[in-house]
């Protein structure tokens, strides 16, 4: 299990280059100061980053490409400016993340909210929808991890099969979670040349010293709550959209699991594309933004 938790589907890029139009802090039920940033204008959309354990900087191209939407981008607990003095299994319960989002919904004064989640962010959206289905307008899931823990059984293999000896050697030498993520960067792409051309964007400084602990505790709890979450989502009726690269290491079977549990799910694959369509190439990025716009309408 430790190995499964170490190799994740998150990318890191340099710190935000565009200042938030608005930022503020809300205080969670257990005393965590949660930073929230807002970008763009229009209807509010909560944008959830992958991880768990990293900030949302890598999603900047999305809110910049879609300025006619008001993206609400929280720094999830323990990440970015939502710092915590103590990281343990009690603090990093998935239900605490869910309650953070419910607090944010109330702060925004929205009866129903749209969630756009990437990777772990999509998994967090699953957890919220399972507990508060009546508060969800729709789910837009970008390369989502699974509703259940089943995808962990093949995700690592899908990453590793794309790596070369020098990638594996670099990963073996890595002393931190961020170092490992940087080493396996090519495993997230369809085209290795695109991966290497963008690898310079990886910035391990975004991973603070708590990242590995956050990741481990949170995913352990996510796995423990797998069955009850799936059962609740079978009764979820709001629209669900999955947008995923055909060659995303998360795997097609994960998308189909989502549709088995929530039959209303619409799945859109982007051909010759990995986990990060907006970075793969101009063609995949254009298709990616087209699909997000269509899903938001």
Can you describe what's shown?
- 41% of the residues lie in helices and 16% in strands.
- It is of the alpha/beta class and 297 residues long.
- The chain has one domain (2-296): Alpha/Beta hydrolase fold, catalytic domain (Rossmann fold, 3-Layer(aba) Sandwich).
- Strands 1-2-4-3-5-6-7-8 form an 8-stranded mixed beta sheet, with helices on both faces.
- It is globular and about 50 Å long.
Features:
single chain, 297 residues, alpha/beta, Rossmann fold, eight-stranded mixed beta sheet, 16% strand, disordered N terminus
CATH fold type: Rossmann fold
Major sheet: 8 strands, mixed
Q: In the CATH hierarchy, what is the superfamily? A: Alpha/Beta hydrolase fold, catalytic domain
Number of strands: 8
Q: How is the secondary structure organized here?
A:
Elements: H1 2-6, E1 22-27, E2 33-39, E3 44-48, H2 60-65, E4 70-74, H3 94-108, E5 113-118, H4 120-131, E6 136-142, H5 152-160, H6 165-173, H7 177-183, H8 192-198, H9 211-224, H10 226-233, E7 240-245, H11 252-261, E8 265-270, H12 277-280, H13 282-296
Parallel strand pairs: 3-4, 3-5, 5-6, 6-7, 7-8
Antiparallel strand pairs: 1-2, 2-4
Helix pairs in contact: 3-4, 4-10, 6-7
A few lines on this structure:
The chain is built from 13 helices and 8 strands. By secondary structure, the chain is an alpha/beta fold. α3 packs across α4 (120-131).
């Amino acid at each position: 299990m430790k190995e499964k938790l170490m190799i994740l589907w998150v990318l890191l890029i340099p710190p935000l280059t565009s200042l938030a139009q608005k930022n503020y802090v809300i205080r969670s039920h257990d005393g965590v100061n949660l930073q929230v940033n807002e970008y763009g204008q229009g209807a509010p959309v909560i944008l959830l980053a992958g991880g768990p354990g990293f900030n949302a900087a890598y999603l900047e191209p999305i809110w910049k490409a879609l300025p006619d939407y008001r993206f609400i981008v929280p720094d999830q607990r323990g990440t970015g400016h939502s710092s915590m003095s103590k990281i343990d299994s009690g603090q990093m319960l998935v239900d605490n993340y869910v309650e953070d989002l419910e607090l944010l919904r109330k702060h925004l004064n929205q009866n129903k909210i749209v969630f756009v989640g990437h990777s772990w962010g999509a998994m967090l959206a699953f957890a919220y929808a399972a507990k508060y289905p009546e508060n969800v307008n729709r789910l837009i899931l970008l390369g989502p991890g699974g509703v259940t823990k089943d995808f962990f059984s093949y995700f690592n293999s899908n990453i590793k099969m794309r790596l070369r000896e020098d990638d594996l050697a670099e990963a073996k030498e890595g002393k931190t979670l961020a170092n490992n993520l940087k080493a396996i960067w090519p495993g997230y792409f369809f085209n290795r040349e695109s991966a290497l051309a963008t690898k310079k964007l990886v910035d391990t400084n975004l991973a603070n010293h708590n990242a590995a602990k956050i990741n481990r505790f949170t995913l352990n709890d996510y796995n423990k709550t797998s069955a009850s979450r799936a059962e609740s989502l079978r009764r979820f009726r709001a629209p669900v959209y999955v947008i995923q690269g055909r060659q995303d290491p998360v795997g097609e079977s994960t998308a189909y699991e989502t549709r088995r549990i929530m039959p209303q799910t619409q799945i859109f694959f982007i051909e010759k594309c990995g986990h990060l369509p907006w970075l793969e190439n101009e063609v995949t990025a254009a298709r990616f933004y087209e699909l997000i716009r269509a899903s938001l309408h």
